[in-house]
């Protein structure tokens, strides 16, 4: 008899507890959200305090004061401090004293970098104290610098006939020598400078003032986006870079897939170049989008080379004591543990190509939707080739070449088809 009533009451009760549960859940959710946004906010304000315009301008002002006092020098100082040809724009990065800023150099965006914010934080040039009064000849300094760089890159000093570091700023005054010395203490500068005229896949150094050096501004890769490089930013750069290479056609400009294929082809070119165009193979041990940038003509450029090693240095880095293979992983460069000697093999067992396939290409060429019916056969083939590349035996360079060529041909065909589609609707599409 009472059953409909009981049912009703139970139903109301159920509804109420359900409501309460929802309310609790909502409260919990809001609480969590507030907590995390609080954390993010505090983190941001702390970071922005360091990477603020005020702090950046202070640092540059300090550089200019020392330039005025004749402590430091450089080919950019005049424009940075006197004629204002170089103007500060914004802070890009600041951590542990490492300072990266964007500036404008007569209308061209550049990046100013230094590993340490203060000139005085760099080691003073001891050579000068020895020869108080009589300054060393520029030749001595260049020789000294050359040896310093070669050893920092892990290349034997001397080795006649090998590529010497590019043209260094001619140092003659005390301020110039001290500045050159502060720059040479920045491995990254030494690296960029050495490969300046030898590689288009390394960022160009445009000049320096004291311990700050200027490099070309690039569109840096983004970790959090499927579009590794911002399309809008690239379009801007491609517009700028018209005519100086790549044969970029304004009609297909930076449009969609086209850009991705061309950047991927440039990654492949970089891999081949680092593998075979120098005296020693160059290993990249920290491969992630943020560490690469793209120029207006869509060439891929290494911007963070803290973890780039030539073969001799790579071997030193890998040769560690070990008890298992895990001990022999140095970021993206791995080798095997020799259990008898408890020492990691000095030979890397994976390769730049393999890691690029795994960490970059795989995300690019994954199907947009789980249903892969919409893919063209060539796209499916590319996806399989990328997968195969990521899983291959990286120590086998012959196999690597084959995989490399296969990827290159697939990407070229896809690029051709994509270009055909955008310029004339009637062509292509036969695959
Ligand atoms: N040439 C450039 N063009 C545009 N942005 C740049 C350039 N160089 C550096 N950046 C930006 O500045 C950031 C930091 O620069 P950089 O990569 O040299 O520091 P970092 O070496 O990554 O620091 P850490 O070694 O602590 O990771 C980069 O993530 C990038 O966004
Ligand atoms: C750099 O110099 C400024 C001003 O002289 C000083 O306040 C700051 O502590 C110095 N920073 C470092 C890391 O030495």
From TrEMBL:
Subcellular location(s) per record: Endoplasmic reticulum membrane
UniProt topology in membrane: Single-pass type II membrane protein
FAM69 N-terminal domain boundaries: 15-167
GO cellular-component term (any): endoplasmic reticulum membrane
Pfam families with a match to the protein in the record: PIP49_C (PF12260), PIP49_N (PF14875)
Transmembrane segments: 21-42
Alphabetized UniProt keyword annotations: Disulfide bond, Endoplasmic reticulum, Membrane, Signal-anchor, Transmembrane, Transmembrane helix
Keyword Chaperone: no
Principal subcellular localisation of the protein: endoplasmic reticulum
Tree of life domain: Eukaryota
PANTHER family listed in its UniProt record: DIVERGENT PROTEIN KINASE DOMAIN 1C (PTHR21093:SF2), DIVERGENT PROTEIN KINASE DOMAIN 1C-RELATED (PTHR21093)
Record-stated family: Belongs to the DIPK family.
The protein's name: FAM69 N-terminal domain-containing protein
Classification lineage: Eukaryota, Metazoa, Chordata, Craniata, Vertebrata
